[in-house]
Amino acid sequence: MKVLVTGANGLIGSHTCRALLASGYDVLTCGRSGSQSSSHQVGDLLDPDFRSRIMRDERPDGLIHLAWQTKHGYFWNAPDNADWRVASIDLLDRFLEIGGTRAVLAGSCAEYDWTISEIGKKTCETDACVPGTLYGQEKLKLARHCQNLIDQGSSIAWGRLFLLCGPGEYPARFVPAVTKALLAGETAKMSSGKQVRDFMHVADAGTAFASVFESTFKGILNVASGEAHSLLSVANSVQQLVGRGQVSAGTLPDRPDDPPYLVADTSILHDTIGFESKYNLISALKSCIEWWRSHEA
């Protein structure tokens, strides 16, 4: 079975490909750059001619669509979020037209209504979706398109990702920023740290998407660890593992639109899909620290 994976060069894409290959799938990837091998097609997914060509020429049986606008500090309200939604709908429709049988797409926790976040209440797939960003709004439009196709009989799953951590993250993201400062023996500045979050290691997230693909599940599910940790406890854990530097909570302001509690209910992922994470928070943070140690040398 041939599976097209978009976003294979992203944080989780390589892990998804590795899991699929281990299960015996014929994996095809695409992107604006990368290997010139027959298993990788170079092109821009925002180009309709490229989308048409890859579906017509390669005729994949399966699709895992992870690609989207992800530039740190920009993607939340980037104008091309709408372009990605249009391109994704077209890609999925073309996939089904050529006889594709199974598709899994990456959604986001940003689709949910963060204004009703309650301490201790995990976010379920049936909770209200009122996205506060253009990114979340366009993802939700695509999710609804997928649901319409599911209602018509298509085998599609929509995985809503929560927070990620792991090797290769953008340096300004929370875990890398704290890690880099502490490795340098400096003070890691941060907000109050009272916000509670759900961090999943990128390898677990990638493997989870492969597991969802191999299942028969149709519909929406959360892809996350399901574990709740305050940002301050995460930063303190990094400091203990690094063994130097200091954490200074409250030196940066809390964002007024930041939800106090953003943790996923992962019942479907664990009970229905049967997925089990390889990493807990400490082992995930250790892998992040070791990666930055080797890349800061």
From TrEMBL:
Lineage: Bacteria, Pseudomonadati, Pseudomonadota, Alphaproteobacteria, Rhodospirillales
Family: Belongs to the NAD(P)-dependent epimerase/dehydratase family.
InterPro entries: Epimerase_deHydtase (IPR001509), NAD(P)-bd_dom_sf (IPR036291)
NAD-dependent epimerase/dehydratase domain segment(s): 3-222
Pathway as given in its UniProt record: Bacterial outer membrane biogenesis; LPS O-antigen biosynthesis
Pfam families in UniProt: Epimerase
UniProt-recorded name of the protein: NAD(P)-dependent oxidoreductase
Highest taxon of source: Bacteria
